[in-house]
């Protein structure tokens, strides 16, 4: 076991070399790398050998080796690349030293991990195979591997069958070139992967029947949060010891006041008949007060106590001159020189 930083440091080191080669125009046109395994396309073996010498000369500690195509085949990262000019096909690469040693069915491990292993190997075969023929060949090999590991045949066959059915049903139908396919997006709550796969199959079947492309968008939210009617809570600005301002939504009238409690509690106090705001709506506009009266209030100052509230209230009344305030000098401030 090496250091966890090994792959990261190797990647950083190789990136610096690649940048230097690219600056000098020595990097091949097709160049792909994973950590220290590199895949390139060269016109001939002489050019490939020259590039190998270039890599080995970039640092005294580097010593790359090269493997070239043999009989139209080249292994790379568990994949066997097949030269089928003008295209490249791929299938699962099995080393000669491979013993087929995987998790034995009679081992003391939960059954869900054994099922997951079968599904993972089938999924790997599908992803690395460029066509169904190669995928079928790998599935036949996996049947023999799991048979040697004492896996029940129905378990293996059912897993392969379900995987193939999911892949076929999830394949998007080819749209007609004459009739454009309409796209409908559905936002659905995500419950679990099994439910998501089932919904995906049902919507794909519905899409083919209606000639409509249904795109699924799963969001990680609980359904009860969307259906439950939540109580509207007061805004966060409802703090204690504040100076607030009221603006009438029907005219330019205003009011400045203070409260040592919460703003929404003070707003409820202004709905009483003795309030100047209540009288303003009923006498000046002959109208009821707004249902969301709190939206007409704004916090204009946060204070540290009652005296601070009184001083700020008086200053804002003098500065803004609200028409609904009766008292303008809440406190007589004394200035000591």
UniProtKB/TrEMBL annotation:
Superkingdom assignment: Eukaryota
Ranges of residues in domain GIY-YIG: 239-326
InterPro entries hit by this protein: GIY-YIG_endonuc, HTH_animal, RT_dom, Znf_C2H2_type
Organism: Pocillopora meandrina
Domain annotation Reverse transcriptase: ranges: 1-81
Protein name: Reverse transcriptase domain-containing protein
One protein family per Pfam: HTH_animal
């Amino acid at each position: 076991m090496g250091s966890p930083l090994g792959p990261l440091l190797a990647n950083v080191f190789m990136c610096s070399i690649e940048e230097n080669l690219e600056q000098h125009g020595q990097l091949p046109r097709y160049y792909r790398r994973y950590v220290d395994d590199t895949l390139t396309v060269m016109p001939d073996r002489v050019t490939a050998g020259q590039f190998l010498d270039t890599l080995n000369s970039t640092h005294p500690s580097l010593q790359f080796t090269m493997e070239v195509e043999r009989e139209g085949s080249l292994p790379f990262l568990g994949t066997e690349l097949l030269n089928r000019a003008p295209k490249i096909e791929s299938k699962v690469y099995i080393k000669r030293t491979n013993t087929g040693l995987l998790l034995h069915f009679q081992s003391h491990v939960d059954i869900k991990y054994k099922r997951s292993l079968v599904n993972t190997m089938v999924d790997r075969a599908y992803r690395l195979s460029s066509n169904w023929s190669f995928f079928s060949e790998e599935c036949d090999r996996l049947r023999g591997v799991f048979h040697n590991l004492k896996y029940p045949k129905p378990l293996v066959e059912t897993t392969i069958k379900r995987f193939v059915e999911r892949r076929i049903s999830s394949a998007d139908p080819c749209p007609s070139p004459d009739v454009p396919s309409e796209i409908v997006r559905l936002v659905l709550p995500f419950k679990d992967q099994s439910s998501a796969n089932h919904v995906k199959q049902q919507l794909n079947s519905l899409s083919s029947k209606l000639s409509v492309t249904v795109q699924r968008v799963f969001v990680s939210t609980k359904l009860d949060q969307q259906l439950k009617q939540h109580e509207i809570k007061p805004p966060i600005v409802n703090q204690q010891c504040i100076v607030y301002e009221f603006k009438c939504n029907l005219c330019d009238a205003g009011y400045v006041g203070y409260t040592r409690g919460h703003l929404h509690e003070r707003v409820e106090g202004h709905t009483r008949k003795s309030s100047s705001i209540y009288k303003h709506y009923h006498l000046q506009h002959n109208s009821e007060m707004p249902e969301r009266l709190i939206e007409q209030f704004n916090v204009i100052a946060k204070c540290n106590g009652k005296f601070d509230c009184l001083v700020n209230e008086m200053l804002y009344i003098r500065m803004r001159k609200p028409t609904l305030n009766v008292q303008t000098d809440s406190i007589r401030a004394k200035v000591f020189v």
